[in-house]
Amino acid sequence: MSTIPFPLAPEPDDDACERGRLMFAAETTFVKGVVAMDGLPPPDRLEICFAGRSNVGKSSLINALTGRKNLARASNTPGRTQEINYFAAGDRYLVDLPGYGYAEAPVATVEKWQRLLKAYLSGRQTLRRAFVLIDMRHGVKPVDDEIMTLLDRSAVTFQAVLTKADKLNRAEHEKILAQVRAALQKHPAAYPELVVTSSEKGDGIETLRAIIATMA
Ligand code: GTP
Ligand code: MG
After folding, report:
1. Residue 79: predicted pLDDT
2. What is the value of pTM for the model shown?
3. Of all helices (H) and strands (E), which one includes residue 160?
4. How far, in Å, from the CA of 161 to the mean position of ligand 1?
5. Using CA atoms, how far apart are residues 8 and 151, in angstroms rounded to an integer?
6. Which one of 26, 49, 176, 204 has the minimum C-beta count within 10 Å?
7. pLDDT in tens, 122-161
8. pLDDT value of residue 2
9. Distance in Å from the first CA to the final CA of the chain
10. Ligand 1 atom, smallest distance to 201 CA
11. How far apart are CA 141 and CA 101, in angstroms?
C-alpha cells in the first residue's frame, strides 16, 4: 500500500471548525512591533508564526484569517513587513514575520532583519509551530530550504502552507505539490500535512483557523 507523503490536511470536523470560527470571530488585536529580541512580549502564551519569502503573502494570510483587510500591512512592495508583528487572537499570539530572500533592500537592513528572524525562529520558547509559506507559483526555493534547516536544528515544528492557489490551475497545483513534498522529505521538523490557501478567494482559511484554534 502506498500513501502520499505530506497529504493535504483533512477538512476539520464540526467541533474544530466551530472553535476556529469562534477564535477569529472575536477581535484580533495588534500587540506590538518588535525590532530586537529583547522587545519580544513575555512568553506567557502559545504562539504561531508566519514565515516565508518576501511577498509570499504572510500579512495577507493573517488578514484573511482575522477577516480584517488591513490588520497586518500587506503590499505589492516586497519587504513591507520590517518588524516582528505580534497579534493577539484568543489565548494565543499570531506573529507576522519580515520576509526573507529579498535582495532589493540595503544590505545592512536585510542583514539586520535576517539576524532577528533567525534569532526568533531558533530561540523563542513559546513558539509552538511555524507556518512556512510557499508561493504556489514558485515552490520551495533554496532560501526556504535554509529556513527549514534552521527550524530542524532548533526543533521547531513547521507546517508548509501554500499561498496564492487562485493563481494556478489544478494541473499546476499537482506539479508544485509534488515538488514541495519532495523538498519536505529532507526535513525532520516538517509537520506531515500541508495546507493550500488563497487569501484572495478564501481557500484553506477555515482549515487554518481550525488548526490554530485546536493546537494544544
Ligand atoms: P513581506 O511583508 O514583504 O515579506 O510580504 P508578505 O509575505 O507579507 O506578502 P503580502 O501579504 O504583503 O502580499 C504580497 C502581495 O501578494 C500583495 O500584493 C497581495 O495582495 C498578494 N497576495 C497575497 N496573497 C494572495 C492570494 O492568496 N492570492 C493572490 N492572487 N494574491 C495574493
Ligand atoms: Mg508582510
Report:
1. 74
2. 0.96
3. strand 158-163
4. 13
5. 21
6. 26
7. 999 999 999 999 999 999 999 999 999 999 999 999 999 9
8. 66
9. 32
10. 27
11. 9
Reduced to 3 states (helix: H, G, I; strand: E, B; else coil), residue 128 is strand
- Other Cβ atoms closer than 10 A to 103: 9
Q: Which amino acid is at 215?
A: M
* Inter-axis angle of helices 205-214 and 58-66, nearest 10: 80
Site residues for ligand 1, CB cut-off 6 Å: 52, 54-60, 74-76, 78-81, 98-99, 163-164, 166-167, 198-200
All 3 cell numbers of residue 198? Answer: 488563497
CA distances for 198 relative to 96, 117, 118, angstroms: 17, 25, 27
Residue range 59-116, pLDDT digits in tens? 999 999 999 888 988 887 777 778 899 999 999 999 999 888 876 677 777 788 888 9
Report how far ligand 2's centroid is from the alpha carbon of 1 (Å).
42
CA angle 37, 192, 140 (to 5 degrees): 65
CB atoms inside a 10 Å sphere around CB 110: 18
Euclidean distance between CA atoms 94 and 23, whole angstroms? 12
Distance between CA atoms of residues 87 and 30, nearest Å: 4
In terms of Cβ atoms closer than 10 Å to its own Cβ (0-12, 13-18, 19+), residue 126 is middle
Tell me, what's the pLDDT at 185? 97
Least Cα distance to 134 among 85, 210, 197 occurs for: 197
Instruction: State the distance from the centre of ligand 1 to the C-alpha of 78, rounded, in angstroms.
Output: 9
> Strand pairing of 84-89 and 92-96?
antiparallel
User: Which residues line ion ligand 2, judged by CB < 5 Å?
Assistant: 58-59, 80-81
